[in-house]
Amino acid sequence: MSFEFVVPESWPETLTLLAQRGDEAFVLAGGTAFTLLLRQGLIRPAYVVSLRRVQDAARIKADAHGGLSIGATATHTDVVRSSAVRGAWPELADAVAKVATVRVRNQATLGGSVAHADPASDAPVMLAALDAQAVVLGAGGARRRIPVDELLVEPFTTTLAPTDLIHSLEVRARRPTTRAVYLKYTPRSADDYATVAVAALANVSDGVLHDLRIFLGAVGPRPMRASSVEKALGSGRVDARAIDDAAALARDDVDPIDDLRGSAVYKREMARVWTARALRELAGL
Amino acid sequence: MSPPTIRFSLNGHARELEVDPAHRLIDVLRDDCGLTGTKEGCSVGVCGACSVLVNGEVVSACLLPAPHVDGASVITIEGLAQGGALTPLQEAFITEGGFQCGICTPGQIITATALLTARPKPTDADISEWMMGSLCRCTGYHGITRAIKKAVEG
Predict the structure, then answer these.
(1) Under 8 Å between Cβ of A79 and A110
(2) What pLDDT score does A236 carry?
(3) Inter-chain contact A107–B60, Cβ cutoff 8 Å?
(4) Is the pLDDT score of A261 beyond 60?
(5) A64-99 core/surface letters (b: 16 or more CB in 10 A; e: else)
(6) Which domains does chain B have, with CATH numbers?
(7) Model confidence pLDDT, tens digit, residues A166-208
(8) Which of A71, A184, B116, B132 could form a disulfide with A59 if both were Cys (CB 3.0 to 4.6 A apart)?
(9) Short-list A140, A138, A163, A161, CA closest to A151
(10) Which helix (H) or strand (E) holds A71?
(11) Which residues of chain A lie closer than 8 angstroms to B133, CB-CB?
């Protein structure tokens, strides 16, 4: 098979190319998903756009308040090693460090992970829990922000148009009381995708988990919000019993399939177990 | 349309090639450059047999689109020994029984080389984290770990 392979050097140049050929273009960053999809015959692009040379596309920076901006082509390793990330959101660096192996982390990008929308990926789940926003460039350079959890819809499907590009991912500054956690259950090998993953964030004070956000990964077509669990805990003080009762509702918030990483029944049960663990960690119990 | 041209450094030597954009770095190394030390074990980036260093970082050559090495520096297993002299790590793989059939060995040595560059005195956790993606069906891994530790001690 043969296709045209272009390597633009700026976002405006990239947008111009997509305006012309967006409908038949495949956009890649690190190229891990691209290579796998291509060799499995799942994509047959006529036109491939690589973002590897787009200036400043990999930049990671924290503002004075601790808000984080992660360029679309920053690799997982860039994020893990970034002092800006470690300072503002070390839990994000820890979550990203759990992805696959050092080789994959050196090549695969966070922006690509969001755009690829594999329900088993780690980064999108944690970003959803942190209420991250994707900065998206559209036709003509128009810029808009889309919450990551709204961007991810179905397996390997986002709400992006073929002429859209993820420019960066933004995470707002935390509060002094903010705690976050990412737990990844890999019963087979450490480099596997999760059987279930739980990303949770809350502003914790006086034993109350304020503004609780829980997303579960690898147990549905997208990061699944554990709304039932969040509602059950409400605004009351949490203790071990309240956590166990609430976590049991995680079974209703997920929609897993049977696969090599577990049966749907097993994953539902593990969603309960690991949600409880994540909540205990947030609550300091 | 003409195939892309890549200009890169391969084991210290400047190379310039036209590549099929559907090819991966492992195809370039084995088929275009005749360097068959890098092995294709799984083709999906899981086994580590195809590990190479690109700009000093270890990656799976089976997952890297060929055009992505334009402008990069690539080191393969063939590029570690200098002037016929094996590196201390390579010597340690011999003395500590770090290989049997040898098929995973280039990937193990490349990855361990990257590990020791990043962490000259790695903890057991460092070794585990870096090496866990390099699978071996023969040795049971203890010989590989001994070799890495021997290279650290000197």
Answers:
(1) yes
(2) 87
(3) yes
(4) yes
(5) eebebbbbbbbbbbbbbebebbeebbebbbbbbbbb
(6) 5-79 (3.10.20.30), 88-153 (1.10.150.120)
(7) 999 999 999 999 999 999 999 999 999 999 999 999 999 999 9
(8) A71
(9) A161
(10) strand A68-71
(11) 100-104, 191
Residue B144 CB partners (closer than 8 Å, separation 6+): B93, B98, B99, B108, B112, B131, B134, B136
Query: A39 at the B interface (CB within 8 A)?
Result: yes
Asked if the C-beta of B135 comes within 8 angstroms of chain A's C-beta atoms, the answer is: no
* Best mutation target, A101, A118, A189, A193, to test chain B (most B CBs within 10 A): A101
Q: So what's the ipTM on this one?
A: 0.97
Paired sense of beta strands B5-10 and B13-18, if any: antiparallel
Say yes or no for a CB contact (<8 Å) between B22 and A102: no
Q: Please report how the helices B88-95 and B142-153 are oriented relative to each other, as an axis angle in degrees rounded to 10.
A: 140
CB-closest option in B43, B48, B67 to A103:
B48
- Per residue in A129-172, pLDDT (tens digit) is 999 999 999 988 899 999 999 999 999 999 999 999 999 999 99
Instruction: Give chain B positions within 8 Å (CB) of A190.
Output: 132
Compute how many other C-beta atoms are within 10 angstroms of the C-beta atom of residue B66. Answer: 27
Model pLDDT for residues B6-52, shown as the tens digit of each residue: 999 999 999 999 999 999 999 999 999 999 999 999 999 999 999 99
8 A C-beta contact, residue B51 and residue A38: no
A107 touches chain B (CB under 8 A): yes
For residue B106, list chain A residues with Cβ-Cβ distance below 8 A.
none
Q: Is the pLDDT of residue A2 over 90?
A: no
Share of chain A above pLDDT 90, in %: 96
Q: Which domains are delineated in chain A?
A: 4-50 (3.30.43), 60-171 (3.30.465.10), 180-283 (3.30.390.50)
A2 and chain B in contact, CB less than 8 A: yes
Average pLDDT over chain A, rounded to an integer? 97
Q: Which one, of A49, A57, A100, A165, lies nearest residue B68 by Cα? A: A49
Q: Which two tokens stand for residue A80?
A: 């893990």
Residue to substitute from A44, A78, A102, interface B, most B β-carbons within 10 A:
A102
